[in-house]
Amino acid sequence: MNVRPFDSLPFILAMLKSIFDFYTVLIVAEREQLLRKSTSTFNKACILKNTSHHFIISA
């Protein structure tokens, strides 16, 4: 049985995208939770600043 490596490429890419989407949702949910917990606007600004690098790395 001869399998060409490129035949499975779309499947691998789709799998990677679904994993990436899952983690993006987790990061967003985590940030929402942190924002809800923190009371002062200063804390909110710090959390937003600290979590924004996740999106820069993953984009």
What's this, in brief?
Keywords: Membrane, Transmembrane, Transmembrane helix. The protein is mostly helical and 59 residues long.
Q: What value does the average pLDDT take? A: 72
Radius of gyration in whole Å, from Cα? Answer: 18 Å
Main sheet characteristics: none
Terminal Cα span: 38 Å
Shape: rod-shaped
Quote the beta fraction: under 5%
| Helix-residue proportion | over 70%
Number of strands: 0
The total count of helices amounts to 2
Uncertain stretches: none
What structural category arises from helix and sheet content?
Answer: mainly alpha
Transmembrane segments: 12-29
Keywords: Membrane, Transmembrane, Transmembrane helix
Explain this structure:
Keywords: Membrane, Transmembrane, Transmembrane helix. The chain crosses the membrane at residues 12-29. The structure is a single chain. The chain is mostly helical and 59 residues long. It has a domain at 23-59. It is 80% helix and 0% strand. It contains two helices and no strands. It has helices spanning 9-37, 41-58. The protein is rod-shaped.
Name some characteristics of this structure:
59 residues; mainly alpha; 2 helices; 80% helix
Q: How is the secondary structure organized here?
A:
Layout: H1 9-37, H2 41-58
